[in-house]
Specification:
alpha/beta; phosphoprotein; metal-binding; 8-stranded mixed sheet; TATA-Binding Protein; 3 domains; 5-stranded mixed sheet
Length: 465
Amino acid sequence: MAPKFGTSGLRGLVTELTADLVTDYTRAFLEACPTGGAVHVGWDLRPSSPAIAEMVIAAIRAAGIEAIREGALPTPALALSSMGTGHAAIMVTGSHIPADRNGLKFYVPGGEITKEDEREILMRIGQDWEIARQPGALTEGAQSAANYIARYVSGFGTDALAGMRIGIYEHSSVARDILIAAIQQLGAQPVPLARSDIFIPVDTEAVDPATRTRLATWCAEHALDALISTDGDADRPMVTDETGTIVPGDVLGALTAQALGAKILCTPVSSNTMIDAMPEFARIERTKIGSPFVIAAMEAALDADPHARVVGFEPNGGFLLGFTAQGPTGPIPPLATRDCLLPILAPLVTAARDGVRLSELVSRLPARFTAADRLAEIPTDRSAALIDALAADPAERARFFDTLGPTETIDRTDGLRLQFTSGEIVHLRPSGNAPECRCYAEADSPARARALVEHHLAKLRDSLG
């Protein structure tokens, strides 16, 4: 797969992310977008990331711009640091994709790059870049991780999780030490588990059965109140209740929005429809899948009303805060980039405050359940062609969705999302940043949602090979 530039920045095989290519994209970003005079550089824990980060730093300095080396750091902590100082940022990460791949995420001083920024960057690729007479300064970052933790300790309080035992599935998450520190500083007892020196590509939307079994076993063995983790670069959370059952990302989003007093939710079409039945929310804005689309909807809401209590979240759990929320012990300022820590902590703090198990907190929500998984190593054009054919041909659609009966609505906002007269939903779409075809389902029970995903993944496998 040739390196690809899109919603999640640049991604490709490590062997193809050469110094020339990395320099070209870095310089194109610097030419196309504002930097505020400096660029913060962070990276995840995959083996190739430090070397690629040094390529990025060299390219920034060659442009005569200051580079701030932040080191291994969660993406939201990097964004918090750069946005707080009015600077740009570049994160070296492949997120949840395998270790033989990597990529770059780009941030302007106001947050994630937009679709328009992407177009401007691509227009500048392939230039002969001049080297500045005076190289930019190199500064070592400091306090970014501590400031990220302090943001939530200040808002929730040092005894917010007192008495709780929280497992931390460390694996190769760049946030693993931050999760332990945050849990401790909020008053809980952290129980670190399964730290890995080998990169493990954890996808919080597609946790395999063996890992699910491990999570449940850990919760029982260690008498945990919850277990938490993230994907590789820590912009997506993973949370289980006390039984080891994973709480889906859009459920974490709904609980977090509820806890913060949000009124307007911006979320992709694939998010759980239970939020439509929650009276706390005045308006739901559905978007295409991808944080740039969620951010655009949030910005539109804030343009219409600068005081709007607006948030965004995705089914992968990433949460974006668009207003200053009031925590139990202090304010939590906006952070309009995908964050893992807020949607981990807010539901746990609510459960602790109410004296209930996390599973009970989840059970209070409207009874709609989602599941998701993916078929890997499928070229995007093949997935898109199949989805287009299903959308265009009712007979093909009936054969593919053969167990679901009549279709009630067809949504082409992003891929093909069908709601059937039974109320069940199946959604197919090509991944925007990997050679994968994703399947989402929604039903009135977790087992039924999972069965729908498994059935239609098998159908995809038969159709796509």
